[in-house]
Backbone:
C-alpha cells in the first residue's frame, strides 16, 4: 500500500506504507473512497509545527468497511462509513455529554491519506450511511469527517438561532461551511469576513448576506457599523491566530457568543479585556461525531452540499501537488482519490 508521508517542511512523499491490520478487537479496516488535505495539515507542512520524523498524514476519511475486529457490533464489512479525526468510544461521560473529541479513550486517526485505514473504537467512531452513495455524493460525505462537522460545531457553540446576526471570521473550508451551517440553523444576517474573490462567491452561495473585506480593527469597525454599533449575536472564529481571535471577541455584542474552532497558534487573551467584553466563549476540537447522524441525513436528503469546498480533485499519488496548491492558496481544499 502507498500513502502520504511528511518528511519535513514542504516535503510530502507518496510512498510505500505498511498495510494496516486489525490490532485490537474494537478496530475496523476501511478502504478509503476519498480523503483530503486539511488546513491544519499546513501547519506541519509549513514547518510551523514540529513533527517527530517522517509522519504519515491525513485525518479526514470515508469509505467501505473491509474488515472488523471480533468485538465490533455496529458496523459490518460492505457498509459505507464516515468517522471523525478522533476515534471515540461514544459511551464515556465526555462522549455522553456530546464531547466525543475529548473522549477519555480517544485516539487520533492520522494516517488517512492512503488506500486503507485502521479505525480504532469502530463502534463508537464510525457512522454508516443508509446505503452505498453515488460517486457525486462522496465529496459531500467526506466533508462531514471534519470541515463540515467543525463548521457546524462553530455555529452550534456560538448559539446560532433563527433571526440572529452572525459573523464568520475566516474564509477557509471551515469558515465557508460555518456560513452554510449558520444559514441552515436559520440565521437572519450572515457577515462573512473574506478578502478572496472565489471564496466570497462560495460564501454567498452558502448563505452569506454581507462580505466584509477589512481585517483587524478595521474589520471590527465595519462589523460595528453593520450592527448599529452593537456587535453581532454570534461570532464564529475559524482561523486560530491572535488577530482573528481578537477580531471575533471585539465583533460580538455584550452578552453575545463567540465560538473558536481554528486550532490556536500563539493566541493570548487579556483577562481584563475578556472581563469587560461580556461574551460567552466556547470552542475546542469539534466533537464531529455528535453531529454525524444529523449531517449524514442532510446530505443524503440533498439539503446541503458541503463538498463544494473541494475545488481541486487529484489522484492520491499527486498528494504533494494537493498540499502545494493549498499552501499557495490556489485551492481552498484538495480532495484525493486513492
Ligand atoms: Zn481536518
Ligand atoms: Zn468516550
Residues:
Amino acid at each position: 500500500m502507498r500513502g502520504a508521508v511528511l518528511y519535513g517542511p514542504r516535503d510530502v512523499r507518496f510512498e510505500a506504507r505498511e498495510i494496516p491490520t486489525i490490532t485490537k478487537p474494537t478496530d475496523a479496516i476501511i478502504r478509503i473512497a476519498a480523503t483530503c488535505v486539511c488546513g491544519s495539515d499546513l501547519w506541519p507542512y509549513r514547518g510551523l509545527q514540529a513533527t517527530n520524523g517522517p509522519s504519515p498524514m491525513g485525518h479526514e476519511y470515508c469509505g467501505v468497511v473491509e474488515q472488523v475486529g471480533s468485538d465490533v457490533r455496529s458496523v459490518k464489512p460492505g457498509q459505507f462509513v464516515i468517522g471523525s479525526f478522533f476515534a471515540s468510544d461514544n459511551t464515556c461521560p465526555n462522549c455522553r455529554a456530546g464531547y466525543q473529541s475529548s473522549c477519555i479513550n480517544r485516539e487520533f486517526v492520522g494516517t488517512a491519506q492512503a488506500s486503507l485505514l485502521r479505525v480504532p473504537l469502530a463502534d463508537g467512531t464510525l457512522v454508516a450511511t443508509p446505503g452505498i452513495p453515488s460517486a457525486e455524493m462522496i465529496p459531500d460525505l467526506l466533508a462531514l469527517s471534519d470541515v463540515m462537522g467543525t463548521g457546524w460545531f462553530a455555529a452550534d457553540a456560538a448559539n446560532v438561532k433563527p433571526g440572529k446576526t452572525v459573523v464568520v471570521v475566516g474564509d477557509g473550508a471551515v469558515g465557508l461551511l460555518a456560513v452554510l451551517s449558520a444559514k441552515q440553523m436559520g440565521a437572519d444576517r450572515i457577515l462573512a469576513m473574506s478578502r478572496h474573490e472565489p471564496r466570497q462567491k462560495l460564501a454567498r452561495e452558502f448563505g452569506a448576506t454581507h462580505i466584509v473585506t477589512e481585517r483587524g480593527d478595521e474589520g471590527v469597525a465595519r462589523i460595528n457599523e453593520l450592527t448599529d454599533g452593537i456587535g453581532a449575536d454570534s461570532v464564529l472564529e475559524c482561523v486560530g491566530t491572535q488577530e482573528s481571535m481578537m477580531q471575533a471577541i471585539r465583533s460580538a455584542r455584550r452578552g453575545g457568543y463567540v465560538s473558536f474552532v481554528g486550532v490556536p497558534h500563539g493566541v493570548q487573551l487579556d483577562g481584563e479585556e475578556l472581563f469587560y467584553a461580556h461574551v460567552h466563549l466556547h470552542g475546542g476540537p469539534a466533537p464531529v461525531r455528535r453531529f454525524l447522524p444529523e449531517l449524514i441525513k442532510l446530505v443524503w436528503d440533498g439539503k446541503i452540499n458541503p463538498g463544494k469546498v473541494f475545488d481541486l480533485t487529484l489522484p492520491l499519488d499527486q498528494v504533494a501537488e494537493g498540499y502545494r496548491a493549498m499552501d499557495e492558496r490556489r485551492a481552498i481544499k484538495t480532495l484525493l482519490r486513492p
User: Anything to note?
Assistant: The two ends are 10 Å apart (CA to CA). Residues 38, 40, 59-60, 85, 146 surround zinc ion (ligand 1) (CB under 6 Å).
